[in-house]
Amino acid sequence: MDLSNNITFGGKPLTLIGKEIKVGEKAPNFTALKTDLSPFSLEELKGKVVVISVMPSVDTPVCELQTIRFNTEAYEYGNIHVITISVDLPFALGKFCANKGVDSAITLSDHKDLDFGMKYGFVLEELRLLSRGIVVIDKDGIVRHVEYVQEITSHPDYDKAIDAAKELV
């Protein structure tokens, strides 16, 4: 993946593995676990505008703010469906969501199979975590916006992602 040289953590280069997702491609279906351990498939949101908020772990300040921000956006724009995904255990995600009032976004764990991470190119090889980024998918299942955040301790461009999603509803 040509993004590998650009992803850093505290300035240290990391390697992304998986297939880089690009604007215009069909969004690959993936499965992950919900906080109640039930399986989730992207197919469940077929025909909907979807924002996938990708992060390393809710136990970090930037990830916490990213999760809360997109949950708020999902509530304000009810016709935009937000998925928050990391490799945190489902139990930790459930506890975080309960403590922070995150109830509009679908919170998923990719810890078991890294199915999302590999199909969308967000797996950090050295850490077995997901990198930070955003993917926006239209009602036809086509990727319309992608951001791989270069420094994973930095915030994504929230406004650009939400604006891209709002144009699709």
UniProtKB/TrEMBL annotation:
Stored PROSITE patterns: THIOREDOXIN_2, TPX
GO MF terms held by the record: peroxidase activity
Origin superkingdom: Bacteria
Boundaries of every Thioredoxin domain copy: 21-167
Protein name: Thiol peroxidase
Organism, as annotated: Psychrilyobacter piezotolerans
Keyword Oxidoreductase in record: yes
Keywords linked to the UniProt accession: Antioxidant, Disulfide bond, Oxidoreductase, Peroxidase, Redox-active center
Key word Oxidoreductase present: yes
Name of one Pfam family that matches: Redoxin
Lineage of the organism: Bacteria, Fusobacteriati, Fusobacteriota, Fusobacteriia, Fusobacteriales
